[in-house]
Each structure stands twice: as structure tokens, then as C-alpha cells.
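User: Hey, my collaborator sent me this sequence without any context and asked if I could get a structure. I don't really work with proteins. Can you help?
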Amino acid sequence: MPGTVLLLAASPMGKGRLVDAASVLPVLAAVAPAVLAGTDTANVVELADPLDPQAVLTRLRAAAAAPGPLSVFVTGQLQLDRRQHLPHLALARTTPATVRYTALPWHWIREELRLRPAGATTLVVDLHADAETWEHLHGTPLDSGRNNAVYGRIAPPPPRRQVASPSYMKAVATLLRSGSRPPTEQLHEQALARTAEEGGAHRDLVLAATRSPGGADPHAEISAAVQAGRHADADAVAARHEQAAVRALGPASEDALHWAEVRADLAMFAGDPVRSCRTWLTVASARLAAGQAADAPAVEAAVDRAHHQWGRIDDRVRARELGPALAELRLRVPGRRQGALDHVQQHLRQLQTQV
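Assistant: No problem. I've predicted the 3D structure and written it out in C-alpha cell form, which is a compact way to encode the shape of the chain:
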């Protein structure tokens, strides 16, 4: 089965840049796609210094939906948003004051990859952190998802007025240009050794974790069913776990909400945007009713996904039915994308005037 490779290199323009992330792309691009992916054939998507986090999310979502193994190579710098202190991948227009709106939240990566089959996703990262983020990561490790193998390093900020080189990722690319593809763990160790020889890596946070739950994990069973096109079977498994969580812990429990979110994603994969939108609206309302903040990542994600699925509904009657609830939520949860509420209200007016 063909593999998919996503090459993402991003760092701010101007004095906020800590690392010359895009300099690694020519070296990575010189590696044969099949070698990058570790498969017989592969499709490669390259994002060089992207401007818009929504555009990155779209490419990430498409890569995550592709069948077969997925390899994601991320080079760049991490910064915290000032409101929630959550790590973000800084993009070309990111400044310390605009992280929340111009950078890619790291938890978006985790969320988009969460329903992929266990063992089918590998992240290779070379990240630099500013001083605040560096301190934060020592107490709160970067969460890249439970099913994903993650290799790489996070480096501290370079000396003032210096721009670091993505030496770890360049070492990975150089090793792969030989044409051979060792196991990722071995590739990681060799790249770290080369980085150390160049005088780096002595303070880096090293990432080398393979998170692969056993055949008994329901997420693996669900992922396998989705990959095989058995969408009803996948939803049935998730529904059983949701009902068990509701009985044991209550409908507002995190476990119950998690399984509701899984079912919303499964409806999307099955091509049922009405059910997906309705479920995301229910999840968002439940989280708000439980006292979660309007800008909490899980609340924003639920409303954003409800909005996205609502826009894919072809049945005007169903779209009109769900539109007011989405508009009401958008008033409380405006999200990160400017004009989201205006978009809902304008589209809803169009739907109401159509016969």
C-alpha cells in the first residue's frame, strides 16, 4: 500500500525566528519518496513556511485520512499562546502577541491523527523552543497522540540574535539520501549521534517514544474497520463504549465525551455530515454546560468541527435545522478564525431565503 509523507517546515519571518526551518526542505526533498515513507511508493506533500494555520490543518487532515502508513516530518519552533499557555508551531506571520491566531496549535496535530490505526503514523520532529516554552516543556511534555511513534528532539533557544540550524533533521535527511531506510528508531539514534558530533544535542529534549496499544484497544479495532470501509461496525464499537462510559461515569464525563467525539469523526468518515455536525454540537454544548471555558481547546475543536461539517451538508432542510444551534454556539465560542460567526449567519440567511 502506498505511503503518505507530509513535510512541514515553518518559522516566523523577522527577528522572532529561532531556527532556519525551511533550509532543511531541499535536503529532504532530495530523498526518494519511497525512502521517506519506508514503503514501495509514496505521495509527498511539502509545506514551506506556510502563512495560515487553517491551510496547514487542511493538508494535515487530508494526509491523516489517506490509507496506508503516514510519515510526518516537522521542523520549526514552538511558542506558547498567552491566553492558555498551550504549545503552538509558529508559522511565517507568528509573533509572540499573535500566537493564538497565526500559529498551528500542537494539539491540532494530535487530534487529526487520533483515529489512525495504531502503528501507522510516525512523527519525526526537529523543534526549537523559546525560553518560556522551553521551561514549560520540562513540566508538561509535548503530547503528540497515543497511537503515534514520535522521534526527534526539542532544542532550547539559540543565543540571542542567532538563528539555529535544524541539524537533527538535516542529519535525518542526509542519512536517508543514501537510499536505504533503516528502522526509524535506528535512524533516530544515528541522527542524534551526528548532531552530537557537531556540538549540539547536549541540552536537547530527546523524543523517542513508540505508542502502540495492544490488538485489545478499541481504537485499533475502530481504525481497522474504517480502513476496511465497515463504517457501521466502527460506529457500533464506539457506541458500546460510549454507553458504558455514560452508565459508569455519566454523560458529561470525559470518557463519555471522548467516545461521542469518536462517533462524530466516524460519521464524517462515513460521509454523513448531518450526523457528524449534530454530534459535535452536542459535545460542545455538554462541555460548556460542564463549566469548560469557551476558549478551551476541546470546546473550540468541537464547535470548529461542527461548523466544518455543517458547511458540507447538501440537504438545505437539514442545514437550516442545525444552523441556529451552530450560530448560538458561535456567539459563545467565536474560535480562532476571524469571521466565523458572520459566515454562519450569512449562510443561514441564504438557506432561509431558498425554497
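In plain terms: The chain has a mean pLDDT of 89. You can pass these C-alpha cells on to your collaborator as they are.
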